[in-house]
Structures are given as structure tokens and as C-alpha cells.
Amino acid sequence: MKTAITKIGNSKGLIIPVQLLKQCGFENEVSLEVKDNSLIISKIGKPRSGWEEAFEKAGVDQTMMDNFGNSFDKDEWTW
Predict the structure, then answer these.
(1) How is the chain split into domains, by residue range?
(2) CA 52/CA 13 separation, integer angstroms
(3) pTM above the 0.70 mark?
(4) Three-class secondary structure assignment of the chain
(5) Is 12:4 a contact under the CB 8 Å cutoff?
(6) Which Gene3D superfamilies does this one have (predicted)?
(7) In this structure, are residues 16 and 3 in contact, taking their beta carbons and an 8 Å threshold?
């Protein structure tokens, strides 16, 4: 598929058909990267995505994290 590069103020932009945006799962923001003279547009992952699976694979038990609390967490912090 070809698309034109359009002038937008002092910058340039691309018009990406909505079907392609939906197919890639792009929403409001994307990641841009230049690699080997190519522009790579990627979906931005959610912070800490995949951590649970990695912890399970490494044998880390969630109860290990329960010992890191302190009195401030219990007495003063408001959720």
C-alpha cells in the first residue's frame, strides 16, 4: 500500500487507513523506531505486561512480596 507524506505545519505526516490501525491494535499513541532506513511503527505495550507470567516461570511466589510492607503502609497510607 502506498500513502502520501503530507505537510503538517513544520512537520510531515502520514494518513493511515483506519482498517490498518484496527488490525494493528493502535489506539492513541504508538512507538516510532528507525531501523535499516525503515520507519517501524509499533503498539505501545502496557507497563509491566508479562510480569506475572515471568514470575511464575521463574518460580517467584507472590507471598514473597508480602514481607516488604512497613508501618507507614499499614498506619498512614490511604488508598
Answers:
(1) 5-43
(2) 38
(3) no
(4) CCCCEEEECCEEEECCCHHHHHHHCCCCCEEEEEECCEEEEEECCCCCCCHHHHHHHHCCCHHHHHHHCCHHHHHHCCC
(5) no
(6) 2.10.260.10
(7) yes
Q: Spelled out in words, what is the top-level CATH class assigned to the domain 5-43?
A: mainly beta
For residue 12, give every residue at least 6 positions away whose Cβ sits within 8 Å of its Cβ, in sequence order, or none: 5, 6
Nearest one of 8, 7, 26 to 16, comparing CA atoms: 26
Rounded Cα distance between 43 and 28, Å, is 10
